[in-house]
Write a structure and sequence with these properties.
single chain, Cyclin A, domain 1, two-stranded parallel ribbon, 23 helices, about 50% helix, about 0% strand, phosphoprotein, protein transport, membrane
């Protein structure tokens, strides 16, 4: 569909903000510069009016986002702020709300990014010194903050390595500061791997809009609303507000806490660091429901095939959902996907159907493939020629009565590459640790495992288990591993002598924790080590 502000004859898929800016700047040699600048601002102003001047503007820009008409927009960030409810629908409140949010971020940053040297003269040096272990010491907080910032910085350094913009030190500092402040404002959640990949596209969209604003306002005076909302000085502030709103919906997909009424139960390994915690019950439930209900509803044959191969949706689906498909599409296509996800609903309900549409696009290749090739296809998702067709498919799957049936298209390429990638994934995870086959674990052994972490041990169990302060060693290498135990039969655990138990160490698995009482589908994970596969 032709964008209303797009030059006639311009292909929509090749029209993006940065390309548009470069194209306009390069035209100066053949056109009068003042005429060109005036024309640029007029088109800029016209786009603003077309998007936001109408009384029913919010419905219109939602449709623009869902139908893929924001690819060339110079006000995508403003649309996202409205979708994510960073800005209210009432345009008269935009400027005040924007000032309020920016002021809040200034206070948050001032509170959490501290320098103990500056406050040294106002503090008790007995408590406030670099060697103090006092919990209230600014130095103690400073060292903890440095550890958290170091963990965040490691991920930020790996953000979109192919893009020069994200290699700039100023951009990396902004990303780190935003994620650090968010972690300190949300102490229960803190920072989790993958959050940087949700923040980076937001920062990039703001950057593109700021570039367009600066270029358009070189020779003409923009409106007060434009100057307020698109001020490049507040890129970091605006990005924090948008990211925080996005995390209101995405937080359960990262959290390791399950909320049921008043109780909050940690659903991961005891003594694990926050960054080591396994996937939450919410994300596991979500991806299981998508594969076991939605995929089954729309393609029974595909559902039976992935179940027969024991491909658990957690293997690929956790990354797809957490990162909002951030690693599955090129950035320009990803922004179009996010346009639709945000415009559709702040609850991101369309995610489930984009997930299913992606599986249906490669369904023929999946059904014709073995486990390794399927894994390669799912973890290295094939390129899509037209992202708009995929989104139309997702909308049709959700509501076939009100959305036209899109053209049926399938991925048709040689599968050797994906077979190799899948084999690499399997081999790399096998090298890390021997997998745990849940299907071979009897109920009696599970009961025995629970007793290992019971606060009060019975006398019979105590004679078998090493003291609580005994060494817990890492899993042995394949060269030194003990022979595998015989499969359990008749529901009984193998007998173990007292002397054997004293010399057999407890093993610490490197695999993602297995939840024995929550969610479905964990029994399928026994073939793989999720830590090496999820990648987020």
């Amino acid at each position: 569909m032709q964008h209303p502000l797009q030059p006639e004859g311009e292909q929509e898929t090749g029209f993006d903000p940065l390309h548009n800016l470069n194209r306009n700047l390069s035209c100066g040699g053949s056109l009068d510069s003042s005429t060109l600048s005036e024309s640029t601002f007029l088109s800029y102003r016209k786009e603003w009016d077309d998007l936001f001047l109408n009384s029913n503007y919010l419905t219109r820009i939602r449709q623009a986002g869902i139908n893929g008409r924001l690819r060339s927009s110079r006000f995508r960030s403003v649309c996202w702020k409205l979708y994510l409810e960073v800005l209210p629908e009432d345009k008269s409140q935009w400027i005040n709300k924007t000032k309020e949010l920016r002021s809040q971020y200034e206070k948050i940053k001032e509170t959490h990014i501290t320098n103990p040297r500056k406050a040294a003269g106002q503090q008790d040096l007995v408590v406030n010194n670099p060697l103090s272990l006092d919990e209230g010491s600014l130095w103690n907080k400073f060292f903890q903050d440095n550890e958290l910032r170091g963990m965040i910085k490691q991920d930020v350094m790996r953000t979109f390595p192919e893009m020069r913009y994200f290699q700039e030190e100023d951009v990396r500092t902004k990303l780190t500061d935003i994620l650090f402040c968010y972690a300190r404002e949300n102490e229960q959640l803190l920072y989790k791997q993958g959050m940087h990949e949700l923040l980076a596209p937001i920062v990039f969209v703001l950057h593109c809009d700021h570039q367009a604003f600066q270029h358009a306002s070189e020779t003409a005076h923009p409106s007060e609303e434009m100057m307020s909302l698109l001020n490049p000085m507040f890129q970091e502030h605006d990005a924090y507000a948008m990211f925080s709103q996005l995390m209101e919906t995405a937080e359960p997909w990262f959290s390791s806490f399950q909320r049921e009424g008043k109780e909050e139960m940690l659903t991961s390994m005891p003594f694990a660091r926050p960054q080591d915690l396994g996937p939450s019950v919410a994300i596991v439930t979500k991806v299981n429901r998508i594969q076991d209900q939605l995929v089954k509803k729309h393609d029974v044959e595909l559902h039976m095939h992935v179940n027969r191969l024991e491909i658990a949706p957690q293997i690929y689906g956790i990354r797809w959902v957490r990162l909002l498909f951030g690693r599955e599409f090129p950035l320009q296509d990803l922004l179009v996907v996010w346009d639709a996800l945000f415009a559709d609903s702040i609850t991101l309900d369309l995610v489930d159907y984009v997930f299913v549409a992606m599986l249906l696009y490669i369904r023929d290749a999946l059904i014709a493939s073995n486990f390794q090739t399927c894994l390669g296809l799912l973890m290295h998702y094939p390129p899509i020629g037209d992202i708009h067709t995929l989104l139309r498919k997702a909308l049709f799957l959700r509501d076939p009565k009100n959305n036209p049936r899109p053209a049926n298209y399938q991925f048709q390429q040689n599968l050797d590459y994906y077979k190799t990638r899948g084999a690499d994934l399997v081999n790399s995870t096998r090298a890390k640790t021997a997998p745990l086959n849940i299907n071979k674990v009897s109920s009696s052994l599970l009961s025995f495992g629970r007793k290992l972490i019971a606060p009060a041990m019975s006398g019979g169990v105590a004679s078998v288990i090493s003291p609580i302060n005994s060494e817990i060693r890492s899993a042995p290498s394949p060269l030194t591993a003990a022979p595998q135990a015989e499969p359990l039969s008749s529901g009984h655990a193998p007998l173990q002598t007292h002397s054997q138990s004293q010399h057999q160490p407890l093993l610490k698995s490197e695999s993602m924790p297995v939840y024995l009482s929550q969610g479905e589908g964990w029994e399928h994970i026994h073939t793989l080590n999720l830590t090496g596969i999820l990648g987020c």
